[in-house]
């Protein structure tokens, strides 16, 4: 980190501490008994996280009374914004009727939500769980069991949750996305998890030529999430489908972020590709903990009585929880019923947001580029990340490019921009985040004014030096 950037970050940190004293005090209390003060590391940013008193729509209110425009939106789950009334009302009504809390028995909601998922994704069978991490783990277990093979192939930077086979190749380091991310893993995990480069057909083909007879599955996000909000190219996904077929491996689409984000269903169908298995979460829960593994009957039944329960995907206490599935049913039905209105509006708003954010930085001579733009299969998106590449002509197609400090200014994106925008009343992650249906024209004007003030401040500090940047 250069001296000017360090000085700006110091100033922003001091201003943040002064502006959010109640959050600082709450975090100090939390650290007395919680590890690092909380139970999800991504929320625990320095010098201390924001503590909330309420949320509604596109907005947060913190303990100090600040109104903050939110683009994190429940880990990108809240496509209708925070606490949408149609879901809150359904949950309140159920609780008032003596329904909703844990019973440990069956109701009809589970089958009803499974029906929606199968109809909207083309999957044949579904089993619910409570998190994306669990769904990816179970999908990989099913793949290993059904193929009799041991290797898991994933892309560098791809996040598939905190479970053993997924905890490799997440953070960028000296060797790129190649390292294990945790101690305490089984000794064979490093050799059983292979890494390939996202949107790199040559590397994918080479990996299958070398290891194809041992690969159980290739798991990939059709629209990569935390690694950069980059869409897969149609050619790349078509190759993935053909290679997995050719070599007898399973293709797993991780649609925890992309499912019901681009249409009222899976994203894979927009590429005209059906995977063998897919995992869903976030949006399908309607703000409650719901995740699912969905796919071919012959694979899914391995965890059922018909398949002699050879894979113990047996569920947990809170799997298919009544209140969670009620929220899921209400959310999914609303998205299906309003698909032709919701998704075009979100995509258009996303296009507006990305272009205007890039422009306000360009107006100050700062090179900023957004990911989240669509392609020939996916015309647009409601997702965006802001990046500060050093080369204006650098293609933003691979996570390696976005997380390499030699090609992009990571500190400016991850630390400086985050605190600077928070001081302007905007909460972002990795430079920006996701839109909800509650992000309207007022919210766009608020964001652009905030970005303009931040760009001027970065310019005044001379952090982003270089030639003037042309308008996009």
Distinctive features:
15 helices, Aspartate Aminotransferase, domain 1, globular, 39% helix, 472 residues, seven-stranded mixed sheet, alpha/beta, 14% strand, single chain, four-stranded mixed sheet, Aspartate Aminotransferase, domain 2
Write a short abstract of this structure.
Helix content is 39%, strand content 14%. The chain is of the alpha/beta class and 472 residues long.
Characterization of the model:
α4 (85-96) packs antiparallel against α11 (322-337) and α5 (109-121) runs parallel beside α11. Helices cover 39% and strands 14% of the residues. The chain has 472 residues and is α/β, with parallel strands linked by helices. A hairpin with a 4-residue loop joins β2 (59-62) and β3 (67-70). Strands 4-12-11-10-7-5-6 form a seven-stranded mixed β-sheet, sandwiched between helices.
């Amino acid at each position: 980190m250069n001296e000017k950037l360090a000085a700006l970050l110091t100033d922003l940190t001091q201003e943040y501490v002064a502006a959010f004293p109640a959050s600082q005090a709450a975090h100090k209390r939390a650290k007395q008994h919680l590890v690092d003060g909380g139970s999800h590391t991504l929320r625990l940013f320095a010098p201390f996280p924001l503590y909330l008193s309420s949320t509604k729509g596109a907005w947060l209110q913190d303990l100090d009374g600040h109104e903050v425009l939110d683009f994190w939106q429940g880990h990108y789950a809240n496509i209708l914004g925070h606490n949408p009334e149609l879901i809150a009302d359904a949950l309140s009504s159920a609780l008032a009727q003596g329904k909703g809390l844990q019973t440990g028995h069956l109701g009809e909601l589970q089958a009803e939500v499974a029906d929606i998922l199968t109809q909207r994704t083309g999957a044949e069978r579904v089993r619910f769980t409570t998190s994306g991490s669990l769904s990816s783990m179970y999908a990989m277990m099913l793949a290993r069991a059904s193929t009799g093979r041991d290797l898991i192939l994933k892309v560098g930077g791809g996040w598939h949750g905190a479970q053993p086979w997924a905890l490799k190749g997440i953070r960028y380091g000296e060797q790129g996305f190649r390292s294990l991310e945790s101690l305490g893993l089984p000794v064979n995990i490093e050799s059983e998890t292979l890494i390939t480069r996202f949107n790199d057909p040559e590397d994918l083909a080479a990996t299958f030529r070398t290891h194809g007879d041992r690969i159980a599955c290739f798991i990939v996000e059709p629209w990569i999430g935390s690694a950069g909000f980059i869409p897969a190219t149609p050619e790349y996904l078509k190759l993935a489908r053909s290679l997995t077929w050719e070599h007898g491996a399973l293709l797993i689409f991780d649609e925890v972020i992309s499912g019901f984000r681009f249409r009222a269903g899976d994203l894979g169908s927009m590429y005209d590709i059906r995977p063998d298995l897919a995992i869903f979460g976030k949006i399908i829960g309607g703000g409650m903990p719901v995740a699912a593994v969905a796919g071919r009957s012959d694979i899914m039944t391995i965890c059922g009585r018909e398949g002699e329960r050879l894979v113990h995907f047996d569920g947990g206490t809170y799997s298919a929880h009544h209140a969670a599935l009620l929220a899921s049913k209400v959310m999914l039905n609303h998205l299906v019923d309003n698909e032709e209105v919701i998704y075009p509006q979100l995509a258009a708003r996303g296009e507006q947001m990305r272009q205007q954010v890039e422009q306000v930085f360009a107006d100050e001579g700062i090179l900023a580029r957004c990911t989240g733009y669509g392609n020939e299969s996916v015309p647009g998106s409601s997702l965006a990340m802001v990046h500060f590449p050093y080369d204006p002509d650098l293609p933003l197609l691979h996570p390696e490019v976005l997380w390499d400090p030699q090609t992009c200014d990571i500190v400016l994106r991850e630390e400086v921009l985050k605190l600077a925008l928070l001081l302007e009343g905007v909460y972002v992650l990795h430079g920006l985040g996701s839109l909800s249906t509650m992000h309207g024209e007022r919210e766009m004007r608020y964001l652009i004014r905030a970005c303009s003030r931040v760009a001027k401040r970065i310019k005044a500090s001379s952090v982003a030096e270089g030639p003037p940047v042309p308008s996009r």
